[in-house]
Amino acid sequence: MRFVICLAMVVLPELVLAELNPDQIAILSNVNSSGSRSVARYYAKQRSIPLSHIIELDTSTRETIDREEYEVSIAQPLRDALKAKKLTSTVRAIVTTYGIPLRVEAPRPSAQEIAWLDDAKAWRKSSVDFLHELKHEIDGIAAHGSQAPSSQSHDIDMDERAIQRLLQQIGQAIQQANERIRNVEGVDRRKAHERVFEKINQRINGLAGKVEMLRSVTEKTATAMDVPLLTGMQAQLRSAERLTGLLLNVPSDQNREHAYRVVQQHFGVVGVLRYANQEIQRFSYAHARASVDSELSVVWWGRDFAHPSGKIPNPLYAWYPEQTQQPTVNLPVMLVSRLDGPNPDLVKGMIDHAILAEQNGLRGNAYFDARGMDSDQLLSYGHYDRDIRILSKTVRKISAYPVVLENTQKRLSEPGDAPHVALYVGWYRLRHYEDAFTFNPGSIGYHIASGEAVSLRDPIERGWCKNALERGITATLGPIGEPYLDAFPLPTEFFGLLLSGRYTLVEAFYLSSRYVSWQMVLVGDPLYNPWRGRALAQKVKESGILRRETFPMPPSEQIFPDPVQTRKRLQEEQQRLLSRFSLRANE
């Protein structure tokens, strides 16, 4: 029998199931909440998690806390407890329980940060003005007739969309200038225009602009002489990008001055504009509110590697390079799920229902509430709406669940519209739960809308998550504020992973979530896996909804470097890089 199992692992590696186990879980309870301690002990018993993996925190019982309180009463005590219990390399997942705070407020900028913020805004304003001037110069290259300069005023607080429009206009102007130069008659005149264009392009994009032009020429001519030069320039750009990222993490007057100099040289005025925008986001903390759980995902990173100024690309997301931003820090991400709700007894019932559904199968109907929209634009409203319809079609094809698809602006909103729910995904009624659902034990669902997890305990809370939990849903997810659409897992990705039976609830969530240190919350038993052993994995793969040739590796099986040693090594590397840069800057 052992030989047969080993042979199956070699021949059919994708059929071998490896998922999160109880020894990889730590449970957080609040010493100031008897309900929290009760839920923690109950969950440990039901899932055979060692009692030594319960970590008691002396923290607030309020759902919302400030950043300092989070660091002092949750993050640092958790790190200390994992070290003391020798669990730093073992624990992959954290369970927050009833009584543990839900939301972390944004920090307040210090006086120094306010000064840097004003300076970054000035950099942005001057960059925008200069880009408009350079665009006028580009428009005049090889053009017929004179080009009148724009008299448009440029607001120092122009938003990100306006800046993106400007950058798109610059890109279009560069393309059009290239076209005009190619059509210029006479070699000498053409080369003269090319020299002017190259100088302007280098002011706009710095060395990066020169690299792009050289790369284009090299691809066309394939000259061996240009390849080493191009390779060297690209390495120089990568080094500059790494350095400026580091200087952003350790700001000082001197470091900021050096950073802007390096950015301007390597990435031009466009680089300065983007760097100023990064600083504005960082020092204003405009997008720094987060869920406690999502912050705990990067509990080992610290402020050096996870500054609380906005969302961070999730290294566990399984669909790169679909996402434009890529994570760069090689520190482990913790999987975090919450056992919380209106009261402790209801939370214990969620645990029981998860285990019951695993034993007996998750039964009921599958409901999908789309809106009849469609779009090829990635992660747009139409894209998500189409994704809901694709999931409904797939569930009908690969499973025995009765499927109900609502595909108009009408919602599942009236009592009796959605009885015996096993699965649900839909939208869009903002923070106004509509009592159309009755949930079977083990049911999983989420509503795509902002602020649906602002509170899980407030009696007058109207959001989806608290009210669905109160009415019997076993697992759900939602945001504690405005997360923007792409923070929600695509339904085909989240439910596709779950339906395969290869992943626990928390693993499916982290493989399908694009960001950490952000606003989303997963509520449910992290070990819940109702489709384990239900023979749907091959059907899911053949259906194509996951848009992958292979199943992603479960996070519990991915390399998990010791966070203490890894963090120490990365800090030493940072210091060495900073020291080398300081020496060069002072020469």
Q: What is the strand content? A: 5-15%
Extract low-pLDDT stretches: 1-16
Dominant shape: globular
The helix-and-strand class reads alpha/beta
Main sheet makeup: 4 strands, parallel
Overall pLDDT metric: 89
Helicity range: 40-55%
Number of domains: 2
Radius of gyration: 27 Å
Number of DSSP strand runs: 15
Lateral strand order in the biggest sheet: 2-1-4-8
Number of helical segments? Answer: 17
CA distance, first residue to last residue: 70 Å
Concise synopsis of the structure shown:
The chain has helices at 2-11, 34-46, 67-84, 111-140, 160-182, 187-221, 226-249, 253-284, 292-296, 302-305, 344-360, 381-398, 464-470, 491-499, 505-511, 537-543, 563-586; strands at residues 25-30, 54-57, 64-65, 93-97, 103-104, 290-291, 312-313, 335-339, 365-370, 403-407, 418-426, 437-447, 476-479, 515-516, 520-523. The protein is an alpha/beta fold. It folds into two domains: 18-106 and 313-557, no CATH class; 111-284.
